[in-house]
Amino acid sequence: MTNITKIMTTEVLTLTPEHSLSEARLMMMENRIRHIPIVNDNNELMGLISQRDVLAAEESSLYGIKKDLRLEREQNIKIADFYHNNLVTIPPQATVHQAALYLQKHKIGCLPVVEDNKLKGLVTDSDFVNVAINLLEVLSETEENLYS
């Protein structure tokens, strides 16, 4: 069975708890990502903030604030109050099948790959869409060869 390191993203964008909600939102928008691991200075995984968390925090924290004050207020809100620290993680030795089962069982869209408390990579539901596409292409080629 294929190891999770074959499909995980290793160049993961991260933030620390001291970063602002605005910085998280901007990083997500600029890089078209939906999850940002929160790490300390030693690259130890502390938590994760998702696009959904950022949107919910913006709505709850900024409700009723005039639009021109919104950005200023958002820059002062630290993500430390919003990220999740009770995470499901997986070791780099895990298989792709095990990771898929974790995502399905826990109904999550992102799975940090961690070894010795250090973030090694990230596997998302998008990675599994890529795996499915590749498998479908191989299956299609195999069927074409059988019937040619």
Automatic annotation (TrEMBL):
CDD domains according to UniProt: CBS_pair_AcuB_like
Domain CBS as annotated: residue spans: 8-69, 83-138
Matches recorded under Pfam families: CBS
InterPro entries assigned to the protein according to its UniProt record, in alphabetical order: CBS_dom (IPR000644), CBS_dom_sf (IPR046342), Diverse_CBS-Domain (IPR051257)
Keyword Kinase: no
Top-level taxon of origin: Bacteria
SUPFAM superfamilies linked to this entry: CBS-domain pair
Keywords: CBS domain
Keyword Heme (UniProt): no
Protein name: CBS domain-containing protein
